[in-house]
């Protein structure tokens, strides 16, 4: 039906002649979001973004001018002091295998996080069906979900893949002993999270350019951690770069990529890696997925007049 001004006016007039109906009962508040999952086809692969929740990152943890930080955050309608930050993981269905990239936080950081297991279940995924877990790195928000809330193996049929450099760093007693006190818990969590799999002979250490399955390849991106690794997916003419922690805050680090975060093991290297990856994704027009970009964290990188810009992917009902 074509709606014209006349037909609309007649419909409105007709509506005035309808007897008033009794007020409907108010609906109760839902109180919860829908499941934190989002699916996207990459050629013959199906990728499910799985959200683990939000954690609060203090703005002072980023390097750079404090006044500039406040202005950038305010211009993006974000709080000046404590920034809500997504934690995303990815499940890749090859048709033959289920591959989980990163695992979330389990129950380490309170009720705002630790939702990955629940969201996997909402997406119809049994953890026992996961064949392989690939870790971008061993920080708690990426590796702690290897264990259930009662510290049992969460993925009983999966082999865990972590880079050689990453595994060597976080499981080294010598390096842990020399770490600042604030960072020692990171070593404990990394070791404890992966140890049950190692004890069961289910940990494999990989190098740069390792191919885990056809079209699923490791790409070293050190700096945030020594062995921080991106995962590049390619199928047919489609590609997606799961870039892990290249960016921790879009409002700050796209326009000013020289901003590091205190969690970076080597801040200078992290900045250099971020700039290299930005340039690569702009040149190749790569679709990217970020652990800490607002859920579902899929989009493109564009060159801006100064720095870069994040262009989120338009949501689509169809894969």
Explain what the structure shows.
With 319 residues, the chain is α/β, with parallel strands linked by helices. It has one domain: Ribonuclease Z/Hydroxyacylglutathione hydrolase-like (Metallo-beta-lactamase, Chain A). It is 26% helix and 26% strand. It has nine helices and 14 strands. A seven-stranded mixed β-sheet has the order 1-2-3-4-5-6-7. The chain has a seven-stranded mixed β-sheet with strand order 8-9-10-11-12-13-14. β10 (229-235) and β11 form a beta hairpin. It is globular, with a radius of gyration of 23 Å. The two termini are 30 Å apart. Mean pLDDT is 92; it is low at 1-18.
Short structural description:
By secondary structure, the chain is an alpha/beta fold.
Which keywords apply here?
alpha/beta, 14 strands, 7-stranded mixed β-sheet, disordered N terminus, 319 residues, Metallo-beta-lactamase, Chain A
């Amino acid at each position: 039906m074509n709606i014209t001004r006349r037909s609309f006016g007649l419909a409105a007039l007709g509506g005035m002649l309808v007897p008033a109906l009794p007020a409907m009962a108010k609906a109760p508040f839902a109180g919860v979001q829908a499941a934190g999952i989002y699916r996207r086809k990459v050629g013959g692969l199906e990728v499910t973004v799985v959200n683990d929740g939000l954690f609060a990152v203090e703005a002072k943890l980023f390097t750079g001018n404090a006044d500039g930080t406040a202005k950038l955050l305010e211009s993006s309608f974000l709080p000046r002091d404590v920034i809500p930050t997504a934690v995303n993981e990815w499940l890749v269905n090859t048709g033959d295998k289920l591959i989980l990239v990163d695992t979330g936080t389990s129950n380490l950081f309170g009720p705002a996080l630790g939702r990955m297991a629940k969201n996997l279940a909402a997406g119809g995924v049994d953890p026992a069906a996961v064949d392989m877990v690939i870790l971008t790195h061993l920080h708690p928000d990426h590796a702690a979900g290897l264990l259930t809330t009662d510290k049992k193996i969460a993925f009983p049929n999966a082999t865990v893949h972590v880079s050689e450099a990453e595994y060597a760093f976080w499981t080294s007693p010598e390096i842990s002993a020399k770490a600042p006190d604030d960072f020692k818990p990171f070593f404990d969590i990394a070791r404890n999270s992966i140890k049950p799999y190692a004890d069961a002979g289910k940990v494999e250490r990989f190098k740069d350019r390792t191919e885990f399955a056809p079209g699923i390849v490791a790409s070293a991106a050190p700096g945030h951690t020594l062995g921080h690794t991106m995962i590049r997916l390619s199928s047919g003419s489609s590609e997606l770069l799961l870039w892990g922690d290249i960016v921790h805050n879009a409002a700050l680090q796209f326009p000013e990529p020289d901003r590091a975060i205190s969690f970076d093991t080597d801040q200078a290297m992290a900045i250099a890696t971020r700039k290299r990856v930005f340039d690569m994704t702009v040149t190749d027009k790569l679709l990217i997925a970020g652990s800490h970009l607002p859920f579902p964290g899929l989009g493109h990188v564009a060159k801006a007049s100064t720095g870069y810009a994040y262009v989120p992917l338009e949501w689509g009902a169809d894969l």
